[in-house]
Amino acid sequence: MEENTTTTILMTALSTLTPPQISTLTATVSSLLHHHRRRLSALLSSTTLFSLSLHHLHSLSLHRKSLLIAQHLLSILSQFSRIFNPTNARMPPCTATINDRDLDSVLLLLLLCEVRQYDPKSLKTLSPSDWRDSLSDYVSSTMLTFSGIECSNSETLIKYIELVTKCKKFVDVMGCRDGKVRREVAASVAAVVALPSVEVKQGGKECAVCKEEMKLGRDVCELPCEHQFHWMCILPWVVKRNTCPCCRHRLPTDDVYGEIERQWEVVVKIGSGCL
């Protein structure tokens, strides 16, 4: 997906937010970005921490770097989808947890990519041991982005859009490079455990999996999309795939790439008025 398309989709979805939702999202994003700024500041202020983070980054395979970016994207994209909780309040959201060392590596990787795009020759003429000073100078020259100065709601959301767009572009490019195709992923354990049991109150309904009628008064499983199934039929299904057998509605998944795809679909539907 092209960068401008991603940005347009995000801006369209954001335009549907109510003032209270905007305030909630802005406060959450502001806190998140502030945390990133503090980590990056500490990273560039310490020769030892910078060296360790750079070494760790160099030790990672291309696939692992892509996975870290994907985890980072999921953590920031989740802030948006939580505001709407578009499926059902009982469904626990899935987010990728990322430790401080990996977060430092992701922030350093993103900064290196940004500097390389801004000035391709600046890092090539320097040895890695001198990168810290060059990166610090770049960060200082872009004070509005990384300083602790308070930003307006619009500026905070613009930064959020830029961050999501940057990470998603990287993940999409790596997906194309790796030749990844859409695959089935299992629903998360937390999502499966949270599925409710409801009593069948209307005759004539059949389970879409086994095609047999669900008897009146029987307890069956109801997905967030309100389609109902025999428990013995739906459980083997959701441990292999996170989609409803009837409408393909997606349950949360522990697969990072699958969850990014699920949450991005939510953003697209919000912008198109389908939610």
Describe this structure in words.
- The chain folds into 2 domains: 195 residues, no CATH class; 50 residues, Zinc/RING finger domain, C3HC4 (zinc finger) (Herpes Virus-1), CATH 3.30.40.
- Helix 2 crosses helix 5 and helix 4 crosses helix 5.
- It contains 12 helices and 3 strands; from the N terminus they run ααααααααααβββαα.
- The protein is elongated, with a radius of gyration of 22 Å.
- The protein has a 3-stranded antiparallel beta sheet.
- 28% of the residues are buried.
- It holds the Pfam family zf-RING_2.
- It is an enzyme of class 2 (transferase).
- This is RING-type E3 ubiquitin transferase.
* Count of all domains: 2
How much of the polypeptide forms β-strand, as a percent range?
A: under 5%
The helix tally amounts to 12
Mean pLDDT: 83
Basic shape: elongated
Structural class based on helices, strands and sheet pairing:
mainly alpha
> What is the N-to-C succession of helices and strands?
HHHHHHHHHHEEEHH
Low-confidence stretches: 144-149
Structure summarized in a few sentences:
This protein has 275 residues and is mainly alpha-helical. The chain has 12 helices and 3 strands. Strand 2 and strand 3 form a beta hairpin.
Annotate the secondary structure layout.
Layout: H1 3-14, H2 19-45, H3 47-59, H4 62-84, H5 100-118, H6 120-124, H7 131-141, H8 143-146, H9 153-177, H10 189-193, E1 197-199, E2 219-222, E3 228-229, H11 231-238, H12 256-271
Antiparallel strand pairs: 1-2, 2-3
Helix pairs in contact: 1-9, 1-12, 2-3, 2-4, 2-5, 2-9, 3-5, 4-5, 4-9, 4-12
